[in-house]
Model the fold of this input.
Amino acid sequence: STMWEAPKNSPAEKIDYTVQARKFLSCVKRTGEFFGASHIVDVLTGSRAKKVLERDHHLLSTYDIGKEFSRKQWMALSRQFIHLGLLKQDFDAYGSLKITERGYAVLKGDEPFLGTDVSVYGSVRTGTASADYEQELFDLLRARRKQIADAEGVPPYVVFSDKTLMEMALYFPRGRETMLEINGVGAVKWERYGADFAAIITRYCDERGLSEKTKPPRTRVKADDEYRHRQVGRAYNEGREIEELMNDFGVQRGTILNNLYRYYGETGALRPEGIAAMLTLPAETGAKIFDLFEKYGVDRLKPVVDALEGTVSYDDLHLYRLARLSGVRVTER
Done:
């Protein structure tokens, strides 16, 4: 089966990212192994975000040493560092990154790091709201997102992604209609959080005499099929359940899970609750599967299947892999 083949545009040859790996790992170390990838990338790219300045992370030797890559490229690299076992995420501590034995080998210069090309993620100025969004408003929106996420006990991206908040801080949507034009805001998200964020934007804009900007109409993407995983991923994060998506797209569960895995690979964002609801194996088995992902990584399922001696199907492992990545804690079920 070719279900898990790499996207067409990722060249097979590996690129030496040892220097970048060491920068990233060093930054994880200097910030106390206490933060997720997003914060590490903020420090490396010289962000003036409140969280960076409040913690004096702009005074670290690793601050602003990652200018060779855009934020998006660093985030793509960070996912490779996790997938290939240099770092592990502590989901009990909001996804904070911890350096593994292999990570230390790279950090000390004993081992190189070869990864897949991240140039496909574009340079610093490409993408939605790269340079022009209001940083101060973005920080206010992030602070509110964190309050909501803490209150609901979910990671912040489950509320809204950074990209969504950047768009809000670029176009200043104040009501339902304009808010629904923002990437990552669907009807479910609007009902749940929209008015709250619109109020912050309105207050900010009124104080500064700013008015809503019109967002350019979305250009049609290529053939729908080519971007199916993005449609599936966005719909899922906006509240559609896996069973509903199977009906929406007329495909099997395995196809939806594959789409969600590809979407996670691009965005690092999947809401855990929809996946948690579908886990049916005993908690003990789930915990064992998670341990094996810890040991073998999540890129290839065959070593995990072999270790379980075929007692768990690939279909179930696809699901448990998504559970592991999205931060579900199986032992609680």
